[in-house]
Design goal:
405 residues, alpha/beta, Rossmann fold, 3 domains, six-stranded mixed sheet, four-stranded parallel sheet, 13 strands, 15% strand, binds pyridoxal-5'-phosphate, pyridoxal phosphate, Threonine synthase, threonine synthase activity, lyase
């Protein structure tokens, strides 16, 4: 990696996302005293004086090209598995000519959770954490296990008992102690919280430590650079805990403060499965917070999050952007995955399929225009998820009917 050993960070402080109360940088923090996520704040004038947009563009296109806008102080804290810039792939047959998929499945551990966890683990290491616990629907646990094991941090991971088998196994194989729990992700979170209160480990639940957002915001930074510093008209983001949506919204503000983009913002569409849509319900009711969704169920496990600690931040960003929270049913999700694979050769995860399904519905209702530039997020590789059976066999010793092949 092409990074100097001692580098300044431009972090000035952390700030409660609800009350704006200030917290000191370079200290271990969880939630704010008000029980809300903390946001990292930077001296953007100094960062902008230290590096120009052109200088960033001249660097290798990985996540670390954005280092002046990231919190890690010591290069030695970074455990890298190769956090590449993910490509924007057109899917003209299943969506139309102006739609691009940001394919996050190509990141280490096969999901965009790598962006958040590479940052959070580096910061935990920098601040002396030796033991981390986390509730997960699968991909976050896998990314945590990979990065933490690699630098000798112990990890204990709790997932709902019906978490996809491959996720549970990859977590275990990458060195974590993983437990299936008879409940949903927030039930797992409660166990992590109890252990953390007893001082057994550091709590790495979504948004309960401040640095995953900083990793996830690189999706917004990358998007701006990839599109010539002109953001798209709309972004469809599969929303569970909402880290990525909140992070991108923060990234856009930082880029504008640097003078690297103008005031134009995409409409942000928070996409949820209709079997677990607390943000959609709160959006439609005009509420600032979302109540827990009971009996959550969907094929899109990554967005089966009945309650999000950053609910008000998701809702705030969606409303400020002029977007909406949209729910889509499992049949539409599966059909979108199928169409995209068959017609465009891109295998989406179900959560990525949800964004395509929501886009199609938004097109139908006139919420978006076919002429608008739209970005959908495919947040994990489709290869991690169950696929329909392909049962054909051929007996090479019997006569072969070539016309029938
Ligand atoms: C975690 C996850 C999501 C949700 O991301 P958030 O930023 O937490 O809302 C969506 N899809 C997949 C595959 C995930 O692993």
């Amino acid at each position: 990696m092409n990074i100097s050993i001692h580098r300044p960070t431009f972090v000035t402080h952390l700030e409660c996302s609800m009350t704006e109360e200030r917290y000191e940088a370079d200290r271990l923090h969880g939630l704010s005293r008000a029980g809300r996520p903390l946001l990292v704040r930077y001296d953007l004038a100094a960062a902008g004086a230290a590096v120009a947009r052109d200088a960033i563009e001249a660097r290798p296109t990985d996540l670390w090209r954005w280092r002046e806008l990231l919190p890690v102080r010591h290069t030695a804290s970074i455990v890298s598995l190769g956090e590449i810039e993910t490509p924007l792939i057109p899917i003209p047959h299943s969506a139309g000519g102006n739609v691009l998929v940001k394919d996050e499945g190509r990141l280490p551990t096969g999901s965009f959770k790598a962006r958040g966890l590479v940052m959070a683990v580096a910061m935990a290491r920098e601040l002396g954490v030796t033991r981390i616990a986390m509730p997960t629907n699968g991909n976050a646990g896998a990314a945590l296990a990979a990065y933490a094991s690699r630098c000798g941090i112990e990890t204990i991971v709790f997932c709902p008992e019906d978490t996809p088998e491959i996720n549970v196994r990859e977590i275990a194989m990458q060195g974590a102690r993983v437990w299936r729990v008879n409940g949903l992700i927030d039930d797992c979170g409660a166990i992590v919280g109890r252990g953390a209160a007893e001082g057994r480990w550091f709590d790495f639940s979504t948004l309960k430590e401040p640095y995953r957002i900083e990793g996830k915001k690189t999706m917004g930074l990358e998007l701006a650079a990839q599109l010539g510093w002109e953001l798209p008209d709309a972004i469809f983001y599969p929303t569970g805990g909402g880290t990525g949506l909140i992070g991108m919204w923060k990234a856009f503000d930082e880029l504008e403060a640097l003078g690297w983009i103008g005031p134009k913002r995409p409409r942000m569409y928070a996409v949820q499965a209709s079997g677990c849509a607390p943000i959609v319900r709160a959006f439609e009711a005009g509420e600032e917070h979302a109540e827990r969704w009971e009996d959550a169920h969907t094929v899109a496990a990554g967005i089966r999050v009945p309650r999000a600690v950053g609910d008000f931040l998701i809702l705030r960003a969606v409303r400020q952007s002029g977007g909406k929270a949209l729910g889509v049913g499992d049949p539409a999700i599966l059909k979108a995955v199928d169409d995209c694979a068959r017609r465009d050769g891109l295998l989406l995860c179900p959560e990525g399929g949800a964004t395509l399904a929501a886009y199609r519905e938004a097109l139908r209702t006139g919420e978006v225009d076919a002429e608008e530039r739209v970005v959908l997020f495919n947040c994990a590789t489709g290869l991690k998820y169950p696929m329909p059976a392909a049962p054909n066999t051929l007996d090479r010793h019997a006569p072969i009917d070539f016309d029938a092949l």
